[in-house]
C-alpha cells in the first residue's frame, strides 16, 4: 500500500499539472484576477453585479470616508458554477465574503454561537414523519445572512475589481452581516428568532 501511495506522489510536478487541469476543467476562478482573465468573464462579471445588486437591495452597507485608525476587513469573491447532468454550465454565481478570520473575539465581535440541529435529532424527526406518513417540507432562504443586523461597527474594503467606483479614500461600513464574518450565523439566527 505504501508503495502505491509513494508512486502517486513521486513526480510532484506531474501531480501539480493534473490538479491544475482539474481546476481548468471546472472553470471556476479562485480570484477576481482569474475571473477577469477567464473565457467566461462576461458571465462572472454578471454574477458579481447580481451579488452587488443583492447587497444593495438588503442595504448591507454604506459608503463612508475611510476612518482613521479603524480595522479594515478585506473582502474576496468566491465563485461557483452549477452544471446540469450533461455537464453544461447553467448558473454562474459569485458571493462576496469578508475575511472575518482577521476579527478578534471580544474585541471586534462578542458572540458567534448559533444553534444547529443535532444530526441524531434530525434523523429521528424524519423517521417519525415517515412512520406517521407526514409531509416534510424544506426551504432555503436566499442570501440568509444578509438579513441579520450587525451590532458591531465593521468596515470592509471595497469588493475586488470595484475599488475605483467607490474611491480611494472610501470604505464600506456594514449595517448587515455578510458571509465570512464570525458573527453572521448568530445574527441570522437572532433575526429569525425575532430578537433583532
Task: Please work out how many helical segments DSSP would assign.
Answer: 7
Beta content comes to 15-25%
Number of strands: 6
What distance lies between the first and last C-alpha atoms, to the nearest angstrom? 56 Å
Range of helix content: 25-40%
Write out the strand line-up for the largest beta sheet, numbering strands in chain order: 1-6-5-2
So what's the overall shape?
globular
Radius of gyration: 21 Å
Order of helices and strands: HHHHEEEEHEHEH
Pfam families: RVT_2
Domain Reverse transcriptase Ty1/copia-type: 59-193
Protein name: Copia protein
Condensed summary:
This protein has 196 residues and is an alpha+beta fold. The protein is built from 7 helices and 6 strands. Helices cover 36% and strands 17% of the residues.
Amino acid at each position: 500500500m505504501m508503495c502505491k501511495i509513494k508512486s502517486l506522489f513521486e513526480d510532484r510536478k506531474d501531480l501539480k499539472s493534473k490538479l491544475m487541469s482539474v481546476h481548468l476543467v471546472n472553470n471556476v476562478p479562485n480570484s477576481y484576477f482569474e475571473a477577469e482573465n477567464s473565457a467566461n468573464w462576461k458571465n462572472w462579471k454578471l454574477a458579481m453585479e447580481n451579488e452587488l445588486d443583492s447587497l444593495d437591495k438588503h442595504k448591507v452597507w454604506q459608503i463612508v470616508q475611510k476612518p482613521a485608525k479603524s480595522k479594515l476587513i478585506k473582502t474576496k469573491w468566491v465563485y461557483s458554477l452549477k452544471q446540469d447532468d450533461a455537464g453544461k454550465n447553467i448558473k454562474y454565481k459569485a458571493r462576496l465574503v469578508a475575511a472575518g478570520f482577521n476579527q478578534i473575539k471580544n474585541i471586534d465581535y462578542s458572540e458567534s454561537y448559533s444553534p444547529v440541529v443535532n444530526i441524531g435529532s434530525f434523523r429521528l424527526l424524519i423517521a417519525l414523519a415517515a412512520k406517521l406518513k407526514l409531509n416534510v417540507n424544506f426551504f432555503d432562504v436566499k442570501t440568509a445572512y444578509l438579513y441579520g443586523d450587525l451590532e458591531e461597527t465593521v468596515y470592509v474594503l471595497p469588493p475586488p475589481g470595484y475599488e475605483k467606483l467607490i474611491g480611494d479614500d472610501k470604505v464600506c461600513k456594514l449595517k448587515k452581516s455578510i458571509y465570512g464574518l464570525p458573527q453572521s450565523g448568530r445574527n441570522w439566527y437572532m433575526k429569525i428568532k425575532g430578537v433583532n
